[in-house]
Amino acid sequence: MPNAPLWPALDAIAYGGDYNPEQWPRETWREDVRLMREAGVNLVSVGIFSWALIETDEGVFDFTWLDEILDLLHANGIAVDLGTPTASPPAWFFARHPEARVTTADGTRLGFGSRGMASPSSAAYREAIVRIAAALARRYAEHPAVVLWHVHNEYGVPVADDHSDESAAAFRGWLRARYGSLDALNAAWGTAFWGQHYGAWEHVSTPAAAPSTINPAHKLDFQRFTDHQLRACFVAERDAIRARAAQPITTNFMANQHWGTDLWAWAEEVDVVSDDHYLWAADDAPEIGLAIAADLTRSVAGGRPWILMEHSTSAVNWQPRNLAKRPGEMARNSLAHVARGADAVLFFQWRASRRGAEKFHSAMLPHAGTDSRVWREVTALGRDLGALDEVRGSRVTADVAVLWDFESFWAQDLEWRPTEDLSHRERIRAYYERLWRDGVTVDFALPGHDLSRYRLVVAPAQYLLRADDAANLTRYVAGGGTLVVSYFSGIVGENDDVHPGGYLSPLREALGVDVEEWLPLAEGARTAIAWDDGSETPSDHWQEQLRLAGAEVVARNASGPGEGLPAVTRHAHGDGAGWYVSTRLDTAGLAALMRRVYDDAGITPARHDEGLEVVRRTDGDRSYAFAINHSARDVALETPGTDLLTGHDGDRHPIPAGGVAVVRETP
Ligand code: GLA
After folding, report:
1. Which CATH number fits domain 400-601: 1.10.10.10, 3.30.70.3400, 3.40.50.880, 3.30.70.20?
2. pTM
3. DSSP 40
4. Catalytic: 154?
5. Distance from residue 47's CA to the centre of ligand 1 (Å)
6. If you classify domain 20-173+233-391 with CATH, what class do you get?
């Protein structure tokens, strides 16, 4: 990944948000910049949805308003993250190029009047995005306000899959490059099944609506192809900018919110990683979903600092129930992202829109104006971030990795799985939540990564596992690592093809066990497992008939179809240990499991007050402890140092209910 400096023109943590001046008259712009300064805003993202107002017809550009607002922002000391507006092509584009509209699986061509890109395979769209990206880069490469390029917006939503003729042709081209021959494609897709053998390339198409379940390998490849096409669109724009401008280039990811793009691959293509994150209001601990997103973003960024490109000051407008953030919650969210590696805190959006589909979405400057709780908290957060300058560039380190593999998730989400109760998201969250509550900081990783620096690797849902990745995990254990694998892992290879040795067979050596037969449970069935110390904890959804190949039994199913059979096993392999969990453990079961696993891995869980999240960022001798109090009680962090937010100096830092401390720890 390139190592471009993050924000060459900024010497502070970036603070601001999406700014859409085109929705407002000139007099409002002047009020905007005055209030931005009041709030401590130093970076805004401009132009993300402005295509129709910049290129008014094909090849006809009008930069007047953009020139004016960039100059005004610069004159007020506010830097710009300049968007390329390609997530929302203008009406003229679709009128001229109707074939570029996205076609859904059932053949519907999507219309205009919303937002969403054209087909990522459309030649007309590819040409148009390069034209506008190049025009913007040419015009603003030297503009002193522009410190960052924001290509597109959230690739993959609201549409990505396209079943147009152009897409089908591009898919065939992609398959030819991947497989070389039709014979190889037929073999990889297993087309001998259900008589799907292809004798001519032109018979291969996208997996559009069909009478029954479509070949899973075909669908998995289409997912890979779509991700590839989206990335090619990004690369085309990026290169058009790079040829003309020197500022770093990003595009905003949606870690832990959208699974359609392989962020490991995307992170290789950007100069700096950025992420959008919105709390899921129905989550009873949304701060844990936030932590997953932030840790995943940092992990795909290779540990480098990253940009929180969007989050919300209060409610969003697109969930079934859009809960307002409670006092202090916005600051906790923002500082939790910084704690996990963000060097920028930005929002959607600066000023609440009066019109359009997002007028009920919160903003830094709400409809209620400056005499409001949100505005007061926005200005307070600007001050807090101003006190954290020295934290920039420091890193988060973790002893534990949780495997997060998009291809495996895509494969697991295909149709006709053994039970609809299987959910990679649910299991990852459950294992991560246990680690979060134990104060253990986590990175995410791919099974093929070098894992040797981690004491513990957890695989909550590694359904698709290539043989070479399984060998990597086995070497990790042999080398002294502790590996925990949860059920429905190690089932298929690259093309959703069951491993020749059966379920879990690629990990048999590391785990000392494989799976003879699955025993999914009926809806609502409750079971339990009995641990080796005589205790019992509840379980549900899933059991298995295991075949032991050297592993010791740590827990057995106490009831259910697998009654009496091993449920949790441990296997000493080389210098390490492989644990296997064949049922869905509840929180008590996960606590019982992880107590034993921590012992094995030499991990000491942190003993903080309940509800206190503590994460460290370090840089050489410097160490910053971020302590975020999610509870309704006053608590304290015991560590010698100075709280950068309050100036409090001492060994014990009181943190009021809902408050945050950032302690520069005394070495
Ligand atoms: C996304 C988009 C923004 C806006 C917000 C609203 O993150 O990038 O343009 O629609 O959602 O939450």
Report:
1. 3.40.50.880
2. 0.98
3. T
4. yes
5. 14
6. alpha beta
